[in-house]
Amino acid sequence: MALARYGFIVMGPDLEIIKHHGRIQTELFDMAVSGVQTVEEAILVAQELLTKHVQLIELCGAFTAEDADRIRDAVNDLVPIGRVQYSDEERKRLQREFG
Predict the structure, then answer these.
(1) Could you give the CA distance from residue 90 to residue 88 in angstroms, rounded to a whole number?
(2) Residue 22 is part of a domain; what is its CATH number?
(3) Which domain does 22 fall in, by range?
(4) CB burial string 13-34: b at 16+ within 10 A, e below
(5) Using the 8-state DSSP alphabet, how is residue 15 labeled?
(6) How many CB atoms lie within 10 A of CB 62?
(7) How many domains does the chain have?
(8) Cα dist. 9→23, 40, 87 in Å?
(9) What's this model's pTM, rounded to 2 decimal places?
(10) What is the pLDDT of residue 22?
C-alpha cells in the first residue's frame, strides 16, 4: 500500500484544537493538519487521526522527543510518529531571532 494519508500536528500558544484544523487533499495525497496548545491536546488529535486511517503522524518542531514518545504510547504505536527537528546551527539561529 502506498503512503497517502498523513497527519500533521502543530503546537502554539494560541491555537485552538476545535478551530485550527484543515485538510490538503488530492487524488494521491491526503493530509490532515491540526493545531493544539498542549501535548494532551496533541494526544487527542493523534487518536482522532487514527480513526481517519492516517498512515503516519508528524509533529512540528515545538514537540520534544519525550512529547513524541507520549503521543506514540497514547496511540499504541499503531503508526509511525515523526518530529520536525532542527540542526544545532538552526536551533541557535532560532534562539537568536526569536529568543
Answers:
(1) 6
(2) 3.40.50
(3) 5-98
(4) eebebeeebeeeeeeeebbbbb
(5) -
(6) 16
(7) 1
(8) 12, 12, 20
(9) 0.91
(10) 96
Rounded CA-CA distance 95/90 in Å is 9
Element spanning 42, H or E:
helix 39-51
Distance CA(38)–CA(13), nearest Å, equals 8
Of the candidates 23, 95, 5, 10, which has an alpha carbon nearest to the alpha carbon of residue 61? 10
| Residue pair 9/59 in contact by the 8 Å Cβ criterion | yes
Each residue's pLDDT tens digit, 23-82 = 999 999 999 999 999 999 999 999 999 999 999 999 999 999 999 999 999 999 999 999
User: For residue 31, what pLDDT is reported?
Assistant: 96
In the predicted model, is pLDDT for residue 1 greater than 80?
Answer: no
- Name the maximum alpha-carbon separation found in the chain: 43
Please state the φ and ψ torsions of residue 78, each to the nearest 5 degrees: -75, -25
> What CA–CA distance (Å, rounded) separates 33 from 76?
21
* Residue 28 grid coordinates: 494521491
